[in-house]
Amino acid sequence: MNRALVLLQVAVIGPALLVAAQAWSADAVRGKELYEARCGACHSIEDNRVGPAHKGVVGRKAGTAPDYDYSPAVKASTIVWNVDTLDRWLTDPERTIPGQKMGYSVPQEQDRSDIIAYLVKVSAHP
Ligand code: HEC
Q: What is the pLDDT along the chain (126 residues), one digit of tens a residue?
């Protein structure tokens, strides 16, 4: 599947992250707007708020933003955030990591893709 290939690229070729993001026809510019509108109440890239800071989130293990007070479930999770796991998380956080405390989801696939493209972009160029 195409997405698997993108994942491989994200994992292996750091500088190609942006190219990979474009390969799955996601729009990081639209993603930024969506992020600010829908995630911004609880998250920012740089700072912990209600939710953890997203700086460098793509490629890092769940529950590891410095100084953020995670739920025990997310802290104990072995999930590493990438295009695929972020898509699952935003579809249904509770199903991805039972016991989490985010309680917010993004039902539309294109919205998820665009938001994730934005997170990939900010993770590649913090
Ligand atoms: C109502 C507040 C709220 C909103 C809105 C929200 N989140 Fe969260 N988010 C949280 C909380 C709280 C956590 C920590 C969960 C835990 O520790 O169980 C979290 C955790 C996460 C994580 C895991 C990060 C890590 O360091 O492991 C990701 C990724 C994430 N959110 C992405 C998003 C995105 C993308 C959006 C917008 C589509 C969003 N969140 C909207 C509150 C929110």
A: 466 655 555 555 555 555 555 556 789 999 999 999 999 999 999 999 999 999 999 999 999 999 999 999 999 999 999 999 999 999 999 999 999 999 999 999 999 999 999 999 999 865
Determine if ligand 1 sits within 6 Å of the CB of residue 62: yes
Q: Report CA(17)–ligand 1 centroid distance (Å).
A: 22
Q: Is the CB of 71 under 6 A from ligand 1?
A: yes
The reported pTM is 0.85
Q: What is the DSSP string of 63-75?
A: T-STT----HHHH
**What separation in angstroms does the CA of 74 have from each of 15, 52, 54, 85?**
28, 11, 15, 13
Shortest-distance atom of ligand 1 to CA 70: 17
How far is the centre of ligand 1, averaged over its atoms, from the C-alpha of 52 (Å)?
7
Report all structural domains of the chain as residue ranges with CATH numbers, in order of start.
2-124 (1.10.760.10)
- How remote is the CA of residue 113 from the centroid of ligand 1, in Å? 16
